[in-house]
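One such shown below:
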Amino acid sequence: MRTNHELLRMHSQAQQGRRCIAAESPRQARMLSRRYGAGDLMRVYPGMYMRPEYWNGLTPTERVCHLVRSLAHKHPEWMFVRQ
């Protein structure tokens, strides 16, 4: 993967927050889509990406938690409940 400092920053922030990489602008969305197409990232949910080596190291429960945190970050007005 070519070095992209913005992608490295996004990945670092996502990893620290224990959530997925998600675009905050159309330009970032295009960049993530290109990296997905090149095989550098995997799309784990529409609009949410992770590096394969990181995602594959997570347990199924950790993966769900990453997705929920990502959705909560993107949609702060949403309420998540467990039944």
Observations:
- The chain has a mean pLDDT of 93.
- The two ends are 41 Å apart (CA to CA).
